[in-house]
Amino acid sequence: MPIEVKVPALGESVTEATIGEWLKQPGEAVKVDEPIVSLETDKVAVEVPSPVAGILGEQKVKVGDTVEVGAVIATIEDAVAAGEATQVEPRDKAAAESPREAKIDEELAELPDDEEHHDHATTLSPSVRRAVLEHGVDPTAIRGTGKDGRLTKEDVLAAAAAKKAAPAPSVSQAAPAPAPSPAPAATGERRTERVKMTRLRQTIARRLKEAQQDAALLTTFNECDMSAVIAAREAYKDLFAKKHGIKLGFMSFFAKASVLALKDIPAVNARIEGDEIVYHDYVDISIAVSAPGGLVVPVVRDCDRKSFAEIEQEIADYGQKAKDGTLTMEDMKGGTFTISNGGVFGSMLSTPIINPPQSAVLGLHRIDERPVVVNGEIVIRPMMYLALSYDHRLIDGREAVTALKIIKEAIEDPTRILIGL
User: Fold this and answer.
1) Average pLDDT of span 387-394
2) Active-site position among 138, 324, 368, 392
3) Whole-angstrom Cα distance, residue 298 to residue 375?
4) Looking at the structure, do residues 119 and 148 belong to the same domain, yes or no?
5) What CATH number did the domain enclosing 110 receive?
6) pLDDT of residue 267
7) Do 103 and 57 belong together in one domain?
8) Do 42 and 113 belong to one domain?
């Protein structure tokens, strides 16, 4: 009897998701707990594993469909209990594959047995294989950008577009036929493309607009001399990495400096809830991380109690999870303050938008050597602009300016972080 695959619980207040990609196709063998479909929720992508080993049967929904928690989305046939088997071969591979798919499998099997070709041939997902078939491209000639260098559908589409744009090579034979005159290139051609927004991008757009509509946003700026932090990193980076197994970055300095500011100015670490102000006696900092589907903000909890190494390790772990698409709802939940580093992309100055229901966000920017006046003399120093956007309904200008000044002073003199000043 077929086993039903249902949409699992997706987290607090999340009741539906969108089918992002089928990772397995009907007729393909699946292992116990092997992901068969990727779901897009408002915050993260979630992979649904197979409850049993067997053969994927019917896909009851299509890519792009919206499904609710508990809905049946597929069936597993020839099911085997988890403890009895880990892999079941398809009943009839020839029946499971179209003639074109079978042909591409044969061609892949005949490729030279070097490491690069072998990796490409054995890691093609069903969606990538279909794209290869549809566009007639050579998968071994494409550099994969996915995890472990695997090909993605976007890699194949990009290669297909490049193939169409490239001039066709001339054919040299014993009696070559005269090549036809190339058609004149179209000039002034204007094209448009419509792509449905992912659920994550829709949520980002909605929340940012809500933040602008609901909050009284204001931004205050300052500049920070990064000389002391750069010197500290240079002096201790090797010992830090040797002892803790993680690199010493700037984010841990700014996280700990922010802790000082939020403890001194509690309103910056608070939120508005109805007609009440909710203050927090802890500091959970949301760190903005770039993911393939958009900007996400996983939370480093209890930064006021964590060491530099613990903060750096959590940030590194979140960065890797964002790249792999494995962030969970729990990773994104909560947060009392946000730090966003646009400097890694080259931003010199920006006005970041708060992450509701939080009331403030710190924006970091690129470090530039600039002339500044120190003790009456013009010197060259590595400088960074800092921006603090805040909800003026809750935070007064004096409080915001003071909080940003505390962060600036702690970065310019990191000893303050150690002694709590």
Assistant:
1) 96
2) 392
3) 41
4) yes
5) 4.10.320.10
6) 96
7) no
8) no
The Cα–Cα gap between 348 and 385 comes to 7
Q: What whole-number distance in Å separates Cα of residue 384 and Cα of residue 365?
A: 6
Amino acid in position 336: T
Would you say residue 52 lies in a domain? yes
Rounded to whole angstroms, how far apart are CA atoms 333 and 362? 19
Q: Which residue has the higher pLDDT, 55 or 42?
A: 55
pLDDT of 175 reads: 47
Q: Which domain range does residue 136 map to? A: 97-162
Q: How confident is the model at residue 171 (pLDDT cuts 50, 70, 90)?
A: very low
Which of 101, 54, 106 lies closest to 77, judged by CA? 54
pLDDT at position 163 is 75
Distance, CA of 59 to CA of 67 (rounded, Å): 13
Clarify whether residues 248 and 138 are in a common domain: no
- The model's confidence at residue 167, banded by pLDDT at 50, 70 and 90, is low
- 243 in helix, strand or coil? helix
What is the tens place of the pLDDT at every residue in 3-23?
A: 888 888 876 667 788 888 888
Residues 387 and 262 grouped into a single domain: yes
Residues 320 and 234 in one domain: yes
Which has the closest alpha carbon to 263: 280, 286, 288? 280
User: Is the Cβ–Cβ distance between 36 and 19 less than 8 Å?
Assistant: no
**Is 317 inside any structural domain?**
yes
Condensed to tens digits (0 to 9), the pLDDT of residues 52-97 reads 888 988 888 888 888 888 889 898 887 665 444 444 444 444 444 4
CA distances from 140 to 104, 156, 157 (A): 12, 11, 14
- Cβ-based neighbours of 322, under 8 Å, separated by 6 or more: 289, 290, 291, 296, 298
CA distances from 226 to 236, 259, 280 (A): 16, 18, 30
Short-list 336, 14, 42, 388, CA closest to 206: 42
The CATH number of residue 393's host domain is 3.30.559.10
Instruction: Read off the pLDDT band of 312 (50, 70, 90).
Output: very high
In the predicted model, is pLDDT for residue 272 greater than 80? yes
120 and 82 inside one domain = no
Cβ–Cβ under 8 Å, residues 101 and 129: yes
CA distance 326 to 296: 12
Task: Choose the catalytic residue: 33, 138, 396, 413.
Answer: 396
Q: Of 69, 89, 109, which residue is a domain's last?
A: 89
The yes-or-no answer on residue 396 being catalytic is: yes
Residues 387, 199: contact at Cβ < 8 Å? no
Q: Are residues 277 and 356 in the same domain?
A: yes
